[in-house]
Amino acid sequence: MPVTDITVPDDLLERAGQLMARSRRSILGIAAPPGAGKSTLAGLLVQQLGAQAQLVAMDGFHLSNRELARLGRASRKGAPDTFDAAGYIALLTRLKTQSPDEVIYAPEFDRDLEESIAGSVAVLPDTRLLITEGNYLLLEDWPWHQVRGCLDECWYLEVPDTVRLKNLLARHMHHGRTEAQAKAWIQCTDEPNAVRIAESRHRADRLLSWL
Predict the structure, then answer these.
(1) CB half-sphere exposure, 192, CA atoms < 13 A
(2) Which of 23, 70, 148, 209 is 20 to 30 Å from 64 at the Cα level?
(3) What is the C-alpha separation between 118 and 116, in angstroms, rounded?
(4) pLDDT digits over 105-114, tens only?
């Protein structure tokens, strides 16, 4: 989804700016099912808010493909138990209490490699607003339920299923799947996850109509 074709609504920019202007660091979460535009919105917010805002995404905590194969979960990559949830929660906790002389390094997911790269994101202590986006920020299952307590505010994106599924199909095909393979993955993996994610939307501070 090209960021040049989309703008962030003024009220969202204003609210993110208010969080950034607090006397202490804020962490804003953006949750949604796969294909809803979480990373697009988060990236645009960081771009427009400037150097005092930074993105630290949940996707950096994907388990490696080798570990997923060992666990027998490779065919469900993207499901809640294919992430290092405890590691993500530990990072958010550290980011809440980062000391003035500390640089914290976070992992980042490389979609071309389909792997997480450790130490890719350097979070400086003077960063005022951290934005984290992911599918399971509002999930009520253990240990994911702890994520919500690490966030100052969390938004949930809602888009028409037709738009979301079109985005997913394009994404999977861009990264090497055939149309048939992409549709099968969406039906067997992405959509069961999407149903589960939507069940926790009531925990969000704000429900957004997006796109």
Answers:
(1) 11
(2) 148
(3) 6
(4) 999 999 889 9
